[in-house]
Amino acid sequence: MRKIVMKAFGKINLTLDVSGKRDDGFHELETLFRGIHLYDIVSLERRDRGIQLECDDEALPMGPENLAYEAAAVLMEDFPQVTGVNIQLVKRIPVAAGLAGGSTDAAAVLVGMNRLFGLDLTKVQMEDYAARIGSDVPFCLYPLSAVGRGRGERLTEAPEGPAMWIVLVKPPFGLSTGEIYEHLEQVAIDARPNLEEVLLGMETKDLERIYRNMGNVLEYSAFDLQPRLRDWERDLSVLRADRVMMTGSGPTLVAYFSDEEGARRLAAQWTQPRWDVLLSRTLSKAEVEDRMIFYEKTENEEE
Ligand code: ATP
Fold first, then answer.
1. Is the peptide bond before 251 cis (omega within 30 degrees of 0)?
2. Which domain holds residue 275?
C-alpha cells in the first residue's frame, strides 16, 4: 500500500472514577469510554526516509512531541521495513479538551501504518505500542465502548448502548490534566459514578438508568479551579439537556440528549464568542469499522 487516509474519532467518558495514587505517581482510574462521531483526518504516505508531519493547526508541535509523530517513531524503531512516512493531520477535534484528540491521531497512525507496511501486528502488540504513547491511545485503536482501568489503558469491552446525541461545549481555555489530578487531593468528593448500573443501562439501552448513574469525579477538581464551569453546567441543564457532565479532565462539558432536535436547539442557543460548540453523537460499530476513507496501492501490488 502507498497511501491511506483515515478518520480518527474522539471520545467522551460516561463515567470516570479515581481510586488513589499509585507508586508510579499515576492515579488508578476506572472509566467508561465511548467513541463519538467527531474526527480528525489522518493521511499516511510511504516515504523513503524519515518522518515528516504536516498539520493544519499551526499551534501544535510538528516534531516528536506530536503524538502522531511519536506513534510513527516507535514503529520505525522496531521495524526495518518502515523506511519513512509522511503524516498529514486535519484537526477537527478541539485540542486539550478531554476528547482524546492527540491520542486518537496516534492510534490512527498505529492502525494505518500496520496496514501501509503490512506489519501484521496482533491486537496485543498494538495495545502495547499504544499504551507506551499514552493512557487513552489503546481505547482509540477501536473507539467504540470500553471500560478502562489502571491508567485507562487496561481495557474491557462494554456494550454499545443506546444512541446518544451530544453537544460538546468547550470554553476558550484549556485545563492542565496534571493540575486537575493534583488538585483532586484537596477537594471533597460527594458522589461517585455507579459503573455497574451504567453498564446495565448500556446493556438494556435504558438512557434514564445511564444518566442517573453517570459521573466524573474530576469535575470536583476542575470546578474548584474554574468555578465558572459549574455555572455553565447549570446553564446548559436549563436548556433542557437530559444530562450535562464534563468529559475527561475537561474543560469540555457534554450536554446529552436522546434526540437530535433537542441537541440542535441547544447548539444553536449557545452562542458565546470563541467557544467550540459541536453537535455530535455516539459512534456505531459499523462507523468504527468503516473509518478508512481511502487507500492507494503501490504499482506492483495485487488486487
Ligand atoms: P485526553 O482526553 O487524551 O487527555 P485531550 O483531548 O485533553 O487528551 P489533546 O487534544 O490530546 O488533549 O492535547 C493535549 C496536548 O497534547 C496539547 O497540549 C497538544 O499540544 C499535545 N499534542 C500532541 N500531539 C497532538 C495532536 N496530534 N493533536 C492534539 N494535541 C496534540
1. yes
2. 165-281
User: Taking the CB of residue 73, how many other CB atoms lie within 10 A of it?
Assistant: 18
Active-site choice (11, 40, 105, 242)? 11
Are residues 114 and 9 part of one domain? yes
pLDDT in tens, 13-26: 999 999 877 788 77
Is there a single domain that holds both residue 125 and residue 137? Answer: yes
Query: What is the rounded CA–CA span in Å between residue 94 and residue 252?
Result: 9
- Give the binding-site residues of ligand 1, using a 6 Å CB cut-off: 60-61, 65-68, 89, 95-103, 105, 136, 177, 248-249
| 303 assigned to some structural domain | no
Do 10 and 23 fall within a single domain? yes
Each residue of 92-104: pLDDT tens digit? 999 999 999 999 9
- CA-CA distance, 260 to 10, in Å (whole number)? 19
Residues whose CB is less than 8 angstroms from the CB of residue 244 and which lie 6 or more positions away in sequence, other chains included: 233, 236, 237, 253, 254, 255, 256
Q: Is 11 assigned a catalytic role?
A: yes
Which residue out of 17, 40, 105, 136 is catalytically annotated?
Answer: 136
pLDDT, averaged across the chain:
95
Count the domains in the chain.
2
Please tell me the pTM assigned to this model: 0.96
